Amino acid sequence: MKTLSHSSRMRIRLAMRNKMFFFFLLVMPFAFFFLWLGVIAKAFRKGRRFISARSLAFNVMGSFWGLSAALVTFREQGILRRFHVTPVTASDMLASSVVANFILTVPMVLVELFLRP
Questions:
Q1: 36 partner at 20 to 30 Å CA-CA among 26, 43, 70, 87?
Q2: What's the confidence (pLDDT) of residue 113?
Q3: What pLDDT is recorded for position 4?
Q4: Would you tell me how many other CB atoms lie within 10 Å of the CB of residue 42?
Q5: How far is it, in rounded angstroms, from Cα 39 to Cα 32?
Q6: pTM listed for this prediction
């Protein structure tokens, strides 16, 4: 279990260094959120909560769709070689990716819930 927490911390640090991460986890979800509420919700005043819930679900699912792309990017950058010399299994690596994405997605979800009409 100690390896999982160390792997998760490492994944969070690697994600914070990646500019593409900031775009797909912060900029794009808020762009969709404000676009959907600003354009679509104006036309459907009664369905604002429904539309904002769909936007929130889309953003959360989108953050977890990037897991496989992140692992491929790590392989191309040679980051996975660092994990190869440690006693971390593939399941630990995948679990740490899920935990790291969860931890990094929670603030975005809380902000969207706070801003929801």
A1: 70
A2: 84
A3: 55
A4: 9
A5: 10
A6: 0.66
Determine the Cα angle at 105 with ends 100 and 106, to 5°: 105
Distances (CA, A) of 108 to 26, 28, 80, 81, 97: 7, 11, 27, 31, 17
9 φ/ψ sector (left φ>0, alpha ψ -120 to 50, else beta): alpha
Cα(22)–Cα(49) distance, integer angstroms: 26
Give SS3 for 78.
coil
Structure tokens at 12: 């969070």
Measured CA to CA in angstroms, residue 113 lies from 20, 30, 65, 89 at distances of: 24, 12, 21, 36
Across the 117 residues of the chain, what is the mean pLDDT of every consecutive 10-residue run?
A: 65 74 76 78 72 78 72 77 75 78 84 80
